[in-house]
Protein backbone atom coordinates (compact mmCIF):
# COMPACT_ATOMS: atom_id res chain seq x y z
CA UNK A 1 0.00 0.00 0.00
CA UNK A 2 2.98 2.30 0.27
CA UNK A 3 4.10 4.61 3.01
CA UNK A 4 1.91 6.75 5.18
CA UNK A 5 3.42 10.11 4.31
CA UNK A 6 3.38 11.72 0.91
CA UNK A 7 5.47 14.37 -0.81
CA UNK A 8 2.16 15.96 -1.78
CA UNK A 9 1.37 16.62 1.87
CA UNK A 10 4.69 17.78 3.30
CA UNK A 11 3.17 20.70 5.08
CA UNK A 12 0.12 18.89 6.34
CA UNK A 13 -0.02 17.24 9.72
CA UNK A 14 -1.38 13.76 8.98
CA UNK A 15 -3.29 11.71 11.50
CA UNK A 16 -2.72 8.01 10.88
CA UNK A 17 -6.27 6.77 10.33
CA UNK A 18 -5.54 4.08 7.75
CA UNK A 19 -3.07 1.38 8.67
CA UNK A 20 -2.23 -1.53 6.37
CA UNK A 21 -0.25 -4.67 7.09
CA UNK A 22 3.09 -3.01 6.39
CA UNK A 23 2.45 -0.47 9.12
CA UNK A 24 2.06 -3.14 11.80
CA UNK A 25 4.84 -5.25 10.28
CA UNK A 26 7.44 -2.49 10.53
CA UNK A 27 6.35 -1.66 14.07
CA UNK A 28 6.71 -5.37 14.84
CA UNK A 29 10.23 -5.45 13.39
CA UNK A 30 11.15 -2.45 15.52
CA UNK A 31 9.89 -4.27 18.63
CA UNK A 32 11.82 -7.37 17.52
CA UNK A 33 15.07 -5.41 17.20
CA UNK A 34 14.43 -4.05 20.69
CA UNK A 35 14.00 -7.69 21.84
CA UNK A 36 10.40 -7.12 22.90
CA UNK A 37 9.34 -10.44 21.43
CA UNK A 38 5.85 -10.51 22.90
CA UNK A 39 4.93 -7.14 21.42
CA UNK A 40 6.65 -8.02 18.14
CA UNK A 41 4.61 -11.20 17.77
CA UNK A 42 1.31 -9.40 18.45
CA UNK A 43 2.04 -6.63 15.95
CA UNK A 44 3.10 -9.04 13.22
CA UNK A 45 0.02 -11.17 13.90
CA UNK A 46 -2.09 -8.08 13.15
CA UNK A 47 -0.06 -7.45 10.00
CA UNK A 48 -0.68 -11.00 8.80
CA UNK A 49 -4.38 -10.67 9.51
CA UNK A 50 -4.40 -7.83 6.98
CA UNK A 51 -2.03 -9.57 4.53
CA UNK A 52 -2.56 -13.32 5.12
CA UNK A 53 -0.50 -14.47 2.11
CA UNK A 54 2.63 -12.49 2.91
CA UNK A 55 5.36 -15.13 3.30
CA UNK A 56 7.87 -12.62 4.64
CA UNK A 57 5.60 -11.74 7.53
CA UNK A 58 4.70 -15.37 8.20
CA UNK A 59 8.31 -16.54 8.23
CA UNK A 60 9.35 -13.63 10.45
CA UNK A 61 6.65 -14.57 12.94
CA UNK A 62 7.86 -18.18 12.81
CA UNK A 63 11.38 -17.00 13.70
CA UNK A 64 10.02 -14.93 16.59
CA UNK A 65 8.03 -17.92 17.85
CA UNK A 66 11.21 -20.00 17.81
CA UNK A 67 13.06 -17.39 19.85
CA UNK A 68 10.15 -17.29 22.32
CA UNK A 69 10.29 -21.09 22.67
CA UNK A 70 7.00 -21.68 20.82
CA UNK A 71 8.50 -24.37 18.61
CA UNK A 72 5.26 -26.10 17.70
CA UNK A 73 3.55 -22.86 16.73
CA UNK A 74 6.56 -21.92 14.62
CA UNK A 75 6.43 -25.22 12.75
CA UNK A 76 2.69 -24.84 12.16
CA UNK A 77 3.35 -21.52 10.44
CA UNK A 78 6.20 -22.96 8.38
CA UNK A 79 4.02 -25.88 7.27
CA UNK A 80 1.26 -23.41 6.37
CA UNK A 81 3.67 -21.52 4.11
CA UNK A 82 4.90 -24.67 2.36
CA UNK A 83 1.48 -26.23 1.88
CA UNK A 84 -0.65 -23.20 1.06
CA UNK A 85 1.49 -20.34 -0.23
CA UNK A 86 4.97 -21.17 -1.53
CA UNK A 87 6.28 -24.74 -1.62
CA UNK A 88 9.61 -23.46 -2.95
CA UNK A 89 10.41 -21.47 0.18
CA UNK A 90 12.99 -24.07 1.16
CA UNK A 91 14.45 -22.28 4.15
CA UNK A 92 11.30 -23.33 5.98
CA UNK A 93 12.74 -26.85 6.17
CA UNK A 94 15.87 -25.59 7.91
CA UNK A 95 13.84 -23.59 10.42
CA UNK A 96 11.64 -26.64 11.04
CA UNK A 97 14.71 -28.80 11.65
CA UNK A 98 15.87 -26.43 14.37
CA UNK A 99 12.45 -26.40 16.00
CA UNK A 100 12.24 -30.19 16.00
CA UNK A 101 15.70 -30.40 17.55
CA UNK A 102 14.61 -28.06 20.37
CA UNK A 103 11.57 -30.28 20.98
CA UNK A 104 13.77 -33.38 21.18
CA UNK A 105 12.24 -34.85 18.01
CA UNK A 106 15.59 -35.67 16.48
CA UNK A 107 14.36 -37.98 13.75
CA UNK A 108 11.97 -35.31 12.48
CA UNK A 109 14.75 -32.73 12.74
CA UNK A 110 17.05 -34.94 10.66
CA UNK A 111 14.35 -35.46 8.01
CA UNK A 112 13.69 -31.72 7.70
CA UNK A 113 17.41 -30.92 7.48
CA UNK A 114 17.88 -33.61 4.82
CA UNK A 115 14.98 -32.18 2.83
CA UNK A 116 16.56 -28.71 2.95
CA UNK A 117 19.91 -30.10 1.77
CA UNK A 118 18.18 -31.92 -1.11
CA UNK A 119 15.94 -29.04 -2.17
CA UNK A 120 18.50 -26.24 -1.84
CA UNK A 121 22.09 -27.60 -1.49
CA UNK A 122 23.60 -24.12 -1.92
CA UNK A 123 20.96 -22.25 0.04
CA UNK A 124 21.47 -19.39 2.45
CA UNK A 125 21.61 -21.75 5.45
CA UNK A 126 23.46 -24.65 3.79
CA UNK A 127 26.53 -24.36 6.07
CA UNK A 128 24.43 -24.21 9.25
CA UNK A 129 22.30 -27.06 7.94
CA UNK A 130 25.36 -29.29 7.43
CA UNK A 131 26.44 -28.63 11.01
CA UNK A 132 22.98 -29.53 12.23
CA UNK A 133 23.00 -32.77 10.23
CA UNK A 134 26.36 -33.74 11.68
CA UNK A 135 25.07 -33.04 15.16
CA UNK A 136 21.94 -35.12 14.59
CA UNK A 137 23.64 -38.01 12.79
CA UNK A 138 24.95 -39.84 15.84
CA UNK A 139 24.53 -43.23 14.28
CA UNK A 140 21.59 -45.54 14.74
CA UNK A 141 23.59 -48.01 16.81
CA UNK A 142 24.60 -45.34 19.33
CA UNK A 143 21.08 -44.06 19.69
CA UNK A 144 19.51 -47.49 19.79
CA UNK A 145 16.44 -46.21 17.94
CA UNK A 146 14.13 -48.60 16.16
CA UNK A 147 11.75 -47.33 13.49
CA UNK A 148 8.93 -47.63 16.03
CA UNK A 149 10.87 -45.62 18.63
CA UNK A 150 11.46 -42.83 16.13
CA UNK A 151 7.73 -42.50 15.48
CA UNK A 152 6.80 -43.09 19.10
CA UNK A 153 5.51 -39.58 19.75
CA UNK A 154 3.18 -39.50 16.75
CA UNK A 155 1.76 -42.93 17.54
CA UNK A 156 1.23 -42.14 21.22
CA UNK A 157 -0.33 -38.76 20.53
CA UNK A 158 -2.83 -40.25 18.05
CA UNK A 159 -3.66 -43.08 20.43
CA UNK A 160 -4.11 -40.74 23.41
CA UNK A 161 -6.39 -38.47 21.39
CA UNK A 162 -8.49 -41.45 20.30
CA UNK A 163 -8.83 -42.65 23.90
CA UNK A 164 -9.86 -39.15 24.98
CA UNK A 165 -12.51 -38.87 22.27
CA UNK A 166 -13.89 -42.31 23.18
CA UNK A 167 -14.22 -41.46 26.86
CA UNK A 168 -11.42 -43.75 28.06
CA UNK A 169 -10.11 -41.01 30.26
CA UNK A 170 -7.79 -42.81 32.67
CA UNK A 171 -6.04 -44.64 29.81
CA UNK A 172 -5.69 -41.35 27.94
CA UNK A 173 -4.29 -39.63 31.04
CA UNK A 174 -1.65 -42.32 31.54
CA UNK A 175 -0.48 -42.09 27.92
CA UNK A 176 -0.43 -38.29 27.85
CA UNK A 177 1.58 -38.18 31.08
CA UNK A 178 4.09 -40.54 29.44
CA UNK A 179 4.35 -38.25 26.41
CA UNK A 180 4.97 -35.21 28.60
CA UNK A 181 7.65 -37.06 30.58
CA UNK A 182 9.48 -37.87 27.32
CA UNK A 183 8.75 -34.59 25.52
CA UNK A 184 8.38 -31.87 28.17
CA UNK A 185 7.81 -29.07 25.61
CA UNK A 186 5.17 -30.82 23.50
CA UNK A 187 2.36 -28.46 24.46
CA UNK A 188 -0.50 -30.14 22.61
CA UNK A 189 -0.06 -33.14 24.92
CA UNK A 190 -0.48 -30.84 27.93
CA UNK A 191 -3.64 -29.34 26.43
CA UNK A 192 -5.14 -32.78 25.78
CA UNK A 193 -4.15 -33.89 29.28
CA UNK A 194 -5.95 -30.86 30.75
CA UNK A 195 -9.10 -31.82 28.86
CA UNK A 196 -8.81 -35.41 30.06
CA UNK A 197 -8.49 -34.26 33.68
CA UNK A 198 -11.46 -31.93 33.23
CA UNK A 199 -13.70 -34.60 31.73
CA UNK A 200 -12.66 -36.94 34.55
CA UNK A 201 -13.90 -34.36 37.06
CA UNK A 202 -10.49 -33.20 38.29
CA UNK A 203 -10.96 -29.51 37.53
CA UNK A 204 -8.05 -28.38 39.70
CA UNK A 205 -5.54 -30.62 37.93
CA UNK A 206 -6.96 -29.52 34.58
CA UNK A 207 -6.40 -25.86 35.38
CA UNK A 208 -2.97 -26.47 36.91
CA UNK A 209 -1.92 -28.19 33.67
CA UNK A 210 -3.19 -25.28 31.60
CA UNK A 211 -1.37 -22.76 33.80
CA UNK A 212 1.83 -24.79 33.30
CA UNK A 213 1.45 -24.42 29.55
CA UNK A 214 0.74 -20.69 29.76
CA UNK A 215 3.70 -20.14 32.07
CA UNK A 216 6.12 -21.75 29.61
CA UNK A 217 4.33 -21.05 26.32
CA UNK A 218 2.86 -17.57 26.78
CA UNK A 219 -0.23 -16.95 24.70
CA UNK A 220 -0.75 -20.60 23.72
CA UNK A 221 -4.13 -20.30 21.99
CA UNK A 222 -5.40 -23.83 22.66
CA UNK A 223 -4.54 -23.47 26.34
CA UNK A 224 -6.36 -20.14 26.60
CA UNK A 225 -9.42 -21.58 24.85
CA UNK A 226 -9.47 -24.60 27.17
CA UNK A 227 -9.18 -22.34 30.20
CA UNK A 228 -12.13 -20.30 28.93
CA UNK A 229 -14.19 -23.49 28.62
CA UNK A 230 -13.27 -24.50 32.18
CA UNK A 231 -14.33 -21.10 33.54
CA UNK A 232 -17.58 -21.35 31.58
CA UNK A 233 -18.55 -24.68 33.12
CA UNK A 234 -17.53 -23.45 36.56
CA UNK A 235 -19.94 -20.52 36.05
CA UNK A 236 -17.16 -18.00 36.69
CA UNK A 237 -18.84 -15.33 34.59
CA UNK A 238 -16.43 -12.52 35.37
CA UNK A 239 -13.41 -14.59 34.36
CA UNK A 240 -15.23 -15.75 31.22
CA UNK A 241 -15.88 -12.12 30.30
CA UNK A 242 -12.29 -11.02 30.94
CA UNK A 243 -10.68 -13.92 29.09
CA UNK A 244 -13.11 -13.53 26.17
CA UNK A 245 -12.00 -9.92 25.83
CA UNK A 246 -8.38 -11.01 25.92
CA UNK A 247 -9.02 -13.54 23.16
CA UNK A 248 -10.83 -10.92 21.08
CA UNK A 249 -7.44 -9.28 20.45
CA UNK A 250 -5.84 -12.44 19.05
CA UNK A 251 -5.47 -12.85 15.28
CA UNK A 252 -4.85 -16.54 14.50
CA UNK A 253 -3.53 -17.41 11.04
CA UNK A 254 -3.92 -21.18 10.97
CA UNK A 255 -7.29 -22.69 10.07
CA UNK A 256 -7.26 -25.04 13.05
CA UNK A 257 -6.62 -22.13 15.41
CA UNK A 258 -9.44 -20.07 13.90
CA UNK A 259 -11.83 -22.99 14.28
CA UNK A 260 -10.80 -23.57 17.90
CA UNK A 261 -11.14 -19.89 18.75
CA UNK A 262 -14.44 -19.42 16.93
CA UNK A 263 -16.08 -22.54 18.39
CA UNK A 264 -14.87 -21.77 21.92
CA UNK A 265 -16.15 -18.18 21.88
CA UNK A 266 -19.46 -19.42 20.48
CA UNK A 267 -19.75 -22.02 23.23
CA UNK A 268 -19.45 -19.38 25.95
CA UNK A 269 -22.01 -17.11 24.28
CA UNK A 270 -19.71 -14.59 22.56
CA UNK A 271 -21.55 -15.00 19.28
CA UNK A 272 -20.14 -11.79 17.80
CA UNK A 273 -16.55 -12.93 18.13
CA UNK A 274 -17.32 -16.54 17.27
CA UNK A 275 -19.06 -15.52 14.04
CA UNK A 276 -16.08 -13.39 13.01
CA UNK A 277 -13.71 -16.35 12.89
CA UNK A 278 -16.11 -19.06 11.75
CA UNK A 279 -17.34 -16.87 8.87
CA UNK A 280 -13.73 -16.20 7.84
CA UNK A 281 -13.22 -19.96 7.52
CA UNK A 282 -16.48 -20.34 5.58
CA UNK A 283 -15.38 -17.70 3.07
CA UNK A 284 -12.12 -19.57 2.54
CA UNK A 285 -13.99 -22.76 1.62
CA UNK A 286 -13.14 -24.51 4.87
CA UNK A 287 -14.51 -28.07 4.84
CA UNK A 288 -15.88 -28.25 8.33
CA UNK A 289 -17.73 -31.01 10.14
CA UNK A 290 -21.32 -30.84 11.38
CA UNK A 291 -20.16 -29.12 14.59
CA UNK A 292 -18.59 -26.34 12.51
CA UNK A 293 -21.88 -25.73 10.68
CA UNK A 294 -23.82 -25.88 13.94
CA UNK A 295 -21.80 -23.09 15.55
CA UNK A 296 -21.65 -21.03 12.36
CA UNK A 297 -25.46 -21.16 12.05
CA UNK A 298 -25.85 -20.46 15.76
CA UNK A 299 -23.59 -17.40 15.77
CA UNK A 300 -25.11 -16.10 12.56
CA UNK A 301 -28.63 -16.35 13.93
CA UNK A 302 -27.86 -14.70 17.25
CA UNK A 303 -26.02 -11.82 15.57
CA UNK A 304 -29.05 -11.01 13.42
CA UNK A 305 -28.02 -12.86 10.24
CA UNK A 306 -31.13 -15.04 10.12
CA UNK A 307 -31.19 -15.81 6.40
CA UNK A 308 -27.54 -16.79 6.33
CA UNK A 309 -28.02 -18.96 9.43
CA UNK A 310 -30.84 -20.89 7.77
CA UNK A 311 -28.83 -21.40 4.57
CA UNK A 312 -25.88 -22.74 6.58
CA UNK A 313 -28.19 -25.07 8.48
CA UNK A 314 -29.64 -26.35 5.19
CA UNK A 315 -26.11 -26.99 3.90
CA UNK A 316 -25.28 -28.91 7.07
CA UNK A 317 -28.37 -31.11 6.67
CA UNK A 318 -27.48 -31.82 3.05
CA UNK A 319 -23.88 -32.78 3.85
CA UNK A 320 -24.71 -34.62 7.10
CA UNK A 321 -28.22 -36.08 6.64
CA UNK A 322 -27.79 -38.41 9.63
CA UNK A 323 -26.95 -35.60 12.05
CA UNK A 324 -29.68 -35.63 14.71
CA UNK A 325 -29.37 -31.99 15.72
CA UNK A 326 -32.01 -29.40 16.53
CA UNK A 327 -31.67 -25.94 15.04
CA UNK A 328 -29.78 -23.84 17.61
CA UNK A 329 -32.43 -21.12 17.64
CA UNK A 330 -35.18 -23.66 18.43
CA UNK A 331 -33.02 -25.31 21.05
CA UNK A 332 -32.54 -22.02 22.85
CA UNK A 333 -36.21 -21.11 22.62
CA UNK A 334 -36.99 -24.01 24.91
CA UNK A 335 -37.04 -23.17 28.58
CA UNK A 336 -33.46 -22.95 29.73
CA UNK A 337 -32.73 -25.32 32.59
CA UNK A 338 -31.61 -23.90 35.90
CA UNK A 339 -27.83 -23.84 35.98
CA UNK A 340 -26.78 -26.64 38.27
CA UNK A 341 -23.52 -28.23 39.27
CA UNK A 342 -22.56 -31.63 37.90
CA UNK A 343 -23.26 -33.17 41.31
CA UNK A 344 -26.80 -31.82 41.24
CA UNK A 345 -27.34 -32.99 37.68
CA UNK A 346 -26.12 -36.51 38.46
CA UNK A 347 -28.47 -36.72 41.44
CA UNK A 348 -31.36 -35.47 39.28
CA UNK A 349 -30.56 -38.05 36.59
CA UNK A 350 -30.53 -40.84 39.15
CA UNK A 351 -33.87 -39.74 40.62
CA UNK A 352 -35.34 -39.65 37.10
CA UNK A 353 -34.00 -43.15 36.48
CA UNK A 354 -35.61 -44.46 39.67
CA UNK A 355 -38.93 -42.91 38.65
CA UNK A 356 -38.72 -44.50 35.19
CA UNK A 357 -38.57 -41.14 33.42
CA UNK A 358 -36.76 -42.50 30.38
CA UNK A 359 -37.93 -39.78 28.04
CA UNK A 360 -36.26 -37.14 30.17
CA UNK A 361 -33.01 -39.08 30.25
CA UNK A 362 -33.11 -39.63 26.50
CA UNK A 363 -33.68 -35.91 26.05
CA UNK A 364 -30.45 -35.28 27.97
CA UNK A 365 -28.54 -37.51 25.54
CA UNK A 366 -30.19 -35.91 22.50
CA UNK A 367 -29.57 -32.37 23.70
CA UNK A 368 -26.78 -30.33 22.11
CA UNK A 369 -25.90 -28.89 25.50
CA UNK A 370 -22.26 -29.79 26.10
CA UNK A 371 -21.69 -32.75 28.43
CA UNK A 372 -18.55 -34.46 29.61
CA UNK A 373 -18.05 -38.07 28.54
CA UNK A 374 -18.50 -39.15 32.18
CA UNK A 375 -21.89 -37.43 32.41
CA UNK A 376 -23.05 -38.81 29.06
CA UNK A 377 -22.09 -42.38 29.94
CA UNK A 378 -23.66 -42.20 33.39
CA UNK A 379 -27.00 -41.28 31.78
CA UNK A 380 -26.61 -44.18 29.35
CA UNK A 381 -26.13 -46.56 32.27
CA UNK A 382 -29.34 -45.30 33.85
CA UNK A 383 -31.21 -45.81 30.58
CA UNK A 384 -29.80 -49.12 29.38
CA UNK A 385 -28.05 -50.74 32.35
CA UNK A 386 -24.55 -52.18 32.33
CA UNK A 387 -25.29 -54.76 29.65
CA UNK A 388 -26.81 -52.36 27.15
CA UNK A 389 -24.86 -49.15 27.65
CA UNK A 390 -21.44 -50.24 26.29
CA UNK A 391 -19.78 -47.83 28.71
CA UNK A 392 -16.01 -47.43 28.75
CA UNK A 393 -15.77 -44.91 31.61
CA UNK A 394 -14.68 -46.57 34.84
CA UNK A 395 -15.79 -43.47 36.77
CA UNK A 396 -19.31 -43.69 35.35
CA UNK A 397 -19.52 -47.38 36.23
CA UNK A 398 -18.30 -46.74 39.78
CA UNK A 399 -20.83 -43.94 40.31
CA UNK A 400 -23.67 -46.07 38.95
CA UNK A 401 -22.75 -49.18 40.97
CA UNK A 402 -22.24 -47.18 44.17
CA UNK A 403 -25.66 -45.53 43.96
CA UNK A 404 -27.28 -48.85 43.09
CA UNK A 405 -25.61 -50.55 46.07
CA UNK A 406 -27.01 -47.93 48.46
CA UNK A 407 -30.46 -48.21 46.87
CA UNK A 408 -30.44 -51.99 47.30
CA UNK A 409 -29.25 -51.73 50.92
CA UNK A 410 -31.71 -49.01 52.00
CA UNK A 411 -34.20 -47.80 49.41
CA UNK A 412 -35.68 -45.23 51.79
CA UNK A 413 -32.30 -43.54 52.21
CA UNK A 414 -31.72 -42.83 48.53
CA UNK A 415 -35.25 -41.52 48.17
CA UNK A 416 -34.08 -38.53 50.20
CA UNK A 417 -32.92 -35.88 47.76
CA UNK A 418 -30.22 -34.63 50.15
CA UNK A 419 -28.81 -38.14 50.56
CA UNK A 420 -28.80 -38.64 46.79
CA UNK A 421 -26.90 -35.40 46.31
CA UNK A 422 -24.42 -36.41 49.04
CA UNK A 423 -23.61 -39.63 47.17
CA UNK A 424 -22.63 -37.78 43.99
CA UNK A 425 -20.81 -35.07 45.93
CA UNK A 426 -18.56 -37.80 47.33
CA UNK A 427 -18.17 -39.35 43.87
CA UNK A 428 -17.00 -36.02 42.47
CA UNK A 429 -14.51 -35.56 45.31
CA UNK A 430 -13.09 -38.99 44.58
CA UNK A 431 -12.71 -38.11 40.91
CA UNK A 432 -11.17 -34.75 41.73
CA UNK A 433 -8.45 -36.39 43.80
CA UNK A 434 -7.90 -39.11 41.20
CA UNK A 435 -8.55 -41.90 43.68
CA UNK A 436 -8.69 -45.31 42.04
CA UNK A 437 -11.38 -47.02 44.13
CA UNK A 438 -12.67 -50.27 42.66
CA UNK A 439 -14.98 -51.77 45.28
CA UNK A 440 -18.35 -50.09 44.75
CA UNK A 441 -19.80 -51.98 47.72
CA UNK A 442 -17.08 -50.72 50.05
CA UNK A 443 -17.46 -47.17 48.79
CA UNK A 444 -21.24 -47.30 49.08
CA UNK A 445 -21.03 -48.63 52.63
CA UNK A 446 -18.61 -45.87 53.67
CA UNK A 447 -20.79 -43.14 52.12
CA UNK A 448 -23.86 -44.58 53.83
CA UNK A 449 -22.14 -45.01 57.22
CA UNK A 450 -20.67 -41.48 57.25
CA UNK A 451 -24.05 -39.98 56.29
CA UNK A 452 -25.93 -41.88 59.00
CA UNK A 453 -23.44 -41.15 61.77
CA UNK A 454 -23.26 -37.46 60.80
CA UNK A 455 -27.05 -37.35 61.18
CA UNK A 456 -26.75 -38.93 64.64
CA UNK A 457 -28.33 -42.24 63.67
CA UNK A 458 -27.10 -45.20 65.68
CA UNK A 459 -25.42 -47.64 63.35
CA UNK A 460 -22.45 -49.92 64.00
CA UNK A 461 -19.80 -50.80 61.45
CA UNK A 462 -20.71 -54.47 61.77
CA UNK A 463 -24.35 -53.74 60.94
CA UNK A 464 -23.38 -51.56 57.99
CA UNK A 465 -20.86 -54.08 56.64
CA UNK A 466 -23.50 -56.84 56.81
CA UNK A 467 -26.00 -54.60 55.02
CA UNK A 468 -23.58 -54.17 52.10
CA UNK A 469 -22.15 -57.72 52.18
CA UNK A 470 -18.59 -56.62 52.93
CA UNK A 471 -16.22 -57.06 55.87
CA UNK A 472 -15.94 -54.45 58.68
CA UNK A 473 -12.29 -54.07 57.74
CA UNK A 474 -13.20 -53.04 54.17
CA UNK A 475 -15.69 -50.53 55.54
CA UNK A 476 -13.06 -49.04 57.86
CA UNK A 477 -10.57 -48.78 54.99
CA UNK A 478 -12.99 -46.91 52.75
CA UNK A 479 -14.27 -44.72 55.58
CA UNK A 480 -10.72 -43.63 56.39
CA UNK A 481 -10.00 -42.86 52.71
CA UNK A 482 -13.12 -40.72 52.36
CA UNK A 483 -12.52 -38.77 55.56
CA UNK A 484 -9.01 -37.95 54.40
CA UNK A 485 -10.35 -36.34 51.23
CA UNK A 486 -13.73 -34.85 52.16
- Helix percentage range: over 70%
Mean pLDDT: 79
CATH class annotation of the largest domain: Mainly Alpha
Radius of gyration: 27 Å
Based on DSSP secondary structure assignment, what is the total number of beta strands? 0
Please state roughly what percent of the residues sit in beta strands, choosing from under 5%, 5-15%, 15-25%, 25-35%, 35-45% or over 45%: under 5%
- CATH architecture identity of the largest domain: Alpha Horseshoe
What structural class is derived from the secondary structure elements? mainly alpha
Count of alpha/pi helices = 29
Overview of the molecule:
Keywords: TPR repeat. TPR repeats lie at residues 21-54. This is Tetratricopeptide repeat protein. α3 (55-68) runs antiparallel to α4 and α22 (358-366) crosses α23 (373-389). It is globular and about 85 Å long. The protein has helices spanning 21-33, 37-50, 55-68, 71-85, 91-103, 106-119, 126-136, 140-143, 147-150, 152-165, 169-182, 187-199, 203-216, 221-233, 237-247, 255-267, 271-283, 290-301, 306-319, 328-333, 342-354, 358-366, 373-389, 394-409, 411-414, 417-433, 440-454, 461-467, 472-485. It has three domains: 17-138, Tetratricopeptide repeat domain (Serine Threonine Protein Phosphatase 5, Tetratricopeptide repeat); 153-333, Serine Threonine Protein Phosphatase 5, Tetratricopeptide repeat (Alpha Horseshoe), CATH 1.25.40.10; 342-485, Cyclin A, domain 1 (Orthogonal Bundle), CATH 1.10.472. The chain is an all-alpha fold. 72% of the residues lie in helices and 0% in strands.
